[in-house]
Amino acid sequence: MLAHGLLTSVLKEALQQSYGITATDSEIVLQKTRKEFEGDFTLVTFPFIKAAKQSPEQVGDTLGKFLIAHNPSITKFNVVKGFLNISISNNFWLEFFSDAQSENYGFKKEGSSGKTIMVEYSSPNTNKPLHLGHIRNIILGYSVANILKSQGHNVLKVNLVNDRGIHICKSMLAWQKFGNGETPNSSGIKGDHLVGKYYVEFDKHYKKEIAELISQGKTKEDAEKQAPLILEAQQMLQKWEAGDKEVKSLWQTMNGWVYDGFAITYSVLGVDFNKTYYESDTYLLGKALVQEGLDKKVFYKKENGSVAIDLSADGLDEKVVLRSDGTSVYITQDIGTAIERFKEFPQLNQLIYTVGNEQEYHFKVLFLILQKLGYTWAKECYHLSYGMVELPDGKMKSREGTVVDADELLGEMFSTAEQTTKELGKVEGFNEEELKHLYKTIGSGALKYFMLKVDAKKKMLFDPKESIDFNGNTGPFIQYTYARIQSVLNKAGDVKATIDPKVELNELERELIKLFYEFPSVLEESSKTYNPSHIANYVYELTKTFSRFYHDCSILKEENETIKQLRLALAKQCGQIIKNGMNLLGIEVPNRM
């Protein structure tokens, strides 16, 4: 950033000339000046006091005087307990603002980094609908992909669907036995919900069989293994793996219902993918690599015939990569899929997996095995980990009583948005179709913002009612402020981009421009840390500041035309940055509310 670069350069010169200290850019830490002190940027002087052989206050005073003498953009300074607070000139901020008025301010040209990044998110099973955990996963992965793209990276958004295995066969078998030919069309039930219904149905009958066997004297462990339903499901899986036409046909039909259901949920959430992978296509990929690992002596064969790797020297455990019966385990499939992706996309520089924090150990093992197999790109694989989402007790439990269904949650969000909007009297001038879209925009925006404003690594409590408050750190508050800005701009007509260089900024005008100045560095930090919460909280801070500006500074009624044009330009750029920031979070901002 210009001011940081300008200050860093002059401060390095000041340290060299005043004390003979050769400082690096990373040693000169500039922060925003705290609101209770005068200044725009603050330098911590403590790292230099030993070499300077002076007190923190003396170092601050010496550096401050040098800055004033050597750069006209620096107007004054003050020192508080070793913190050098530096004030930047009115002209500097006006010049910066004149240059920053752009629709794509803060964004880098797509592809300019020369880096291609794949972001995997969603990763559902085809035996049940998407749930609350998937929503956090999808919202997080999609937002991180947007943020990476804003920084000039080529981004591939991918989904890996778990469409095979015993859990899929459970739904299929239950539908065969208890479904009576029911389909999404005949029942009016969304496809993924219908298949999920039969997964629950399997569990219900399976538990009855277990109880029956226990009553006949079997142990719980034996009953779970010997129940007729589980044995039939295992037989069905074996038939699937053998390519049985009847089983494969049913599998394709029921999975098709699920994909149609998922597509509706993804559409409502406003997310998409460049490519979808299916585990039915990838589950054998890793088996061939086991021999490669044995040849390289990375893996070893155990006495029982299974193949494993010992990672104890790296602080991890032994990991089996091939069972004694020759079947692959989950991590073997992941090894093969990762290698296949880098073969498929030779330009790929990084692979990011959006998966809950309960899988942290799995990904440590995966990345380490890939490194030991000699794949240098494995160091560029990253696990984007996130914590669980919880809801207040008794709210929106699904029909099964254990999982919060994604579609139910979204429906509840839209209903709450409608109720709140009507209570606040914000529905005048909209037709029925516009209102329906508005409620969806507010409801989904509230959900996404509430989830993304929290650091993904933290476990979070999601309260739907709290998220749709039109005041405070919420999506609707930001959306409403954006709509208010558009209302002002519509009434004003054309806004002049040219700013009078002689106009004197008041405190709030200056504060807005300083926040504009921060936007590119916020984007950069979010991109480097894969953390959308930086953007969410920045946009909230900008929105709060604009609300104070709107309240305290007349815009349309300002009599001085120069000041009026400045304030209109500030409002326009503020709206643009709010829109861009929210779009990166996957949130739409309405032009009127």
What report would you give on this structure?
The structure is a single chain. The protein has 3 domains: 2-88, 2-Layer Sandwich (Gyrase A, domain 2); 116-282 and 346-390, Rossmann fold (3-Layer(aba) Sandwich); 423-584, Orthogonal Bundle (Isoleucyl-tRNA Synthetase, Domain 1), CATH 1.10.730. 55% of the residues lie in helices and 11% in strands. The protein has helices at 2-19, 49-52, 56-70, 90-100, 132-150, 166-178, 184-187, 191-215, 220-226, 228-241, 245-269, 279-282, 287-295, 330-344, 360-372, 406-423, 432-452, 464-467, 475-492, 507-529, 533-552, 561-584, and strands at residues 30-32, 41-44, 74-80, 83-88, 116-120, 154-161, 275-278, 300-301, 307-310, 318-322, 348-356, 381-386, 389-390, 460-461. The strands form 4 sheets. The protein has a 5-stranded parallel sheet, with helices on both faces. It has a 4-stranded antiparallel sheet with strand order 1-2-4-3. The chain has a 3-stranded antiparallel sheet with strand order 8-9-10. Helix 8 (191-215) crosses helix 11 (245-269) and helix 16 crosses helix 17 (432-452). The model is unreliable at 394-401 (pLDDT under 50).
